[in-house]
Amino acid sequence: MDILKKHMLECDLCGACVDVCPSYNDLGIITDLYNYLDESARPESLPKEEHDIRLCYTCNICTVSCPKELGIRKLVSIAREKKTKQFGKSEEQGLADPFSANNMYHKIGDWEPPVTFRNEGKKSDVIYFPGCAASCMNKVVGKSTAKIMDACGIDYSVMSGVDYCCGSVAFGAGNPSPLQKIGQKNIDEIHRRGAKILVTTCPGCYRAFKVLYPMIFGEQNFEVLQTSEYLWRLIQENKLVFKRDMKEYLTQKEVVAGSDNGDVVLYYQDPCHLTRAVGIHEAPRRVLKSVPNVTLSNPTPENSACCGFGGGVRTVFPEKSIAQAAKIHELAKNAGSNVIITNCGGCMKNIIEGGMTLKNGLPVFDLAEFISLACGNPATERDDNKLVRLSNKALLRSLSRYEFNPYGDK
Ligand code: SF4
Ligand code: SF4
């Protein structure tokens, strides 16, 4: 049975999904979607403004909250596909397409040199696949992961995001052709290098290799691990050793100055596309709980919220997206935390940007960045202002209708 029929048959309009949804407040979204998805519907029957399908963050909170696992997102996804067929690809859909002149990571890479990883191209047991974001935009993520692997003495090589894209973000935006074109080439390269393990940072890359590629190209003979899973394995194998007291370090650096008792209380931000989409939420928490002298305020993903970046909302409704990101700081503070840990380049960028709108935003660290520090490595260079401005400038240059420009870029 197709998704629409199943939904129409099983949904009893209980409202649990809209109660938790950060975008839609009333059940009219469901009837609007039913109307638009009806085969006989005309293009102009697109949902009305407050139910605009571009407002969905694809966070999946509605799906996990629905007693029947229906939710709203699945309907939104097929509505987005239908809209693409009716009206053609949008400019936004080209942003993560590796073959598009509109690709925002290529633009950023032209303005600021991407990360240069050592070990590119050689045969190795382990391959690190940082993805476009950790190679060109959130460079601290890619650099910190490589530092950890160096410190642990891993034999690894890198498939940099400058040369290799997984295609999953374009796929998620309703444009499957890049993934279909490059997926097999990526798999062939991993086989050529003889790797047994592929480590991905980005939740989108993880989903591509773990879920989408096996469905499209068949089973692979290498293991796919997200950074957090790999770090947890290194800890268990006693290869990753914590050499720095992070409480002392963050206090000395005044990162946690002003907290009640100087304790370092971490809030782990569950990326929607890892936690709810592919079920990874225990490994990052195990890793963080292993770090001496820090505590974790949210031991489960219960009540976790979307950072506002996903589903293309940051590109179409930037103010709304950033306001949603600012809420993560409040959520973390209300849980008694004084540091936010992210595990996705998009979440990190957005939560930093959301924090800039607040008087007392919390410090934000990427998981690999935090663990690299805890291993005793020197701090990885980062420039949050540049990160936010470059990303916004790429949108300004790529999207003809994009006008959000609080940073004064051209
Ligand atoms: S929570 Fe599920 S059953 Fe209830 S209205 Fe939403 S989709 Fe329908
Ligand atoms: S995926 Fe998130 S934003 Fe989209 S409808 Fe569901 S809860 Fe709302």
Description:
This protein has 410 residues and is α/β, with parallel strands linked by helices. The chain folds into three domains: 3-88, Orthogonal Bundle (Fumarate Reductase Iron-sulfur Protein, Chain B, domain 2); 104-234, Rossmann fold (3-Layer(aba) Sandwich), CATH 3.40.50; 242-398, Rossmann fold (3-Layer(aba) Sandwich), CATH 3.40.50. The protein is built from 20 helices and eight strands. The chain has helices at residues 3-10, 16-20, 28-37, 61-65, 73-87, 104-111, 131-137, 139-151, 168-172, 177-193, 203-217, 227-236, 246-252, 272-278, 282-290, 313-316, 318-334, 345-356, 367-374, 384-398, and strands at 126-130, 156-160, 197-200, 223-226, 264-268, 294-296, 339-342, 364-366. The strands form two sheets. The protein has a four-stranded parallel β-sheet with strand order 2-1-3-4. Strands 6-5-7-8 form a four-stranded parallel β-sheet. Helix 6 (104-111) packs across helix 20 and helix 12 crosses helix 15. It is globular, with a radius of gyration of 21 Å. One iron/sulfur cluster binds at residues 21-24, 56-62, 71-73, 76. One iron/sulfur cluster binds at residues 11-17, 66, 68, 70-71.
